[in-house]
Design brief:
Length: about 170
């Protein structure tokens, strides 16, 4: 990982290290830290680090209701104001490219998948032509790339199924 120069630094971790230590995706960690309003305790190599004392409650503490326990049905104006503020927050995040529409993400992911698939399709031909590999080796490369493409397909299908539950 890295050399600890100060004992205080041992308790300040990056988002990636936090995710790795607790078995969480780094995006989940970043989102929970942002939602909880945890501010960085420092930085290392230009990346923010967070104090362990602050991240524990943010990651595993009791989830506070967004409204602070207020029943919005009792206060229709407050409910309207809260939803308007949430809509404005989403518009702002979209403008600063922190949030992208699902269809744009799907289009970009599709483009990436097509590019990788095309590269995998042409790999055996390039190896045969440019590297002069024998047919047995080319056949093995083809089997490996086919297995890789199948793994990618299964991952996409699983992600799509998981996304339907939201």
């Amino acid at each position: 990982m890295g050399e600890v120069l100060n004992s205080k630094d041992a308790y300040n971790w990056s988002v990636s290290k936090i995710g790795q230590a607790f078995g969480l995706d780094r995006r989940t960690v970043a989102k929970r830290l942002q939602e909880s309003g945890v501010s960085p305790a420092g930085s290392k190599r230009g990346n923010p680090t967070y104090a362990l004392a602050d991240i524990g409650p943010a990651l595993f503490g009791e989830k506070k209701p967004i409204s602070g326990g207020v029943d919005f049905d009792q206060f229709p104006d407050a409910r309207k104001a809260w939803f308007q503020s949430e809509n404005e927050r989403l518009k702002f995040e979209k403008e600063i490219k922190q949030l992208i529409p699902a269809h744009e993400f799907a289009r970009e992911l599709s483009l990436l998948a097509k590019t990788v698939a095309a590269g995998l399709d042409s790999l055996p031909d390039m190896l045969e032509r440019d590297a002069g590999l024998n047919p047995e080796t080319i056949e093995r490369v083809q089997k490996v790339t086919d297995a890789l493409r199948e793994q990618m397909y299964q991952a996409v299908v699983k992600a799509a199924e998981d996304g339907d539950d939201d």
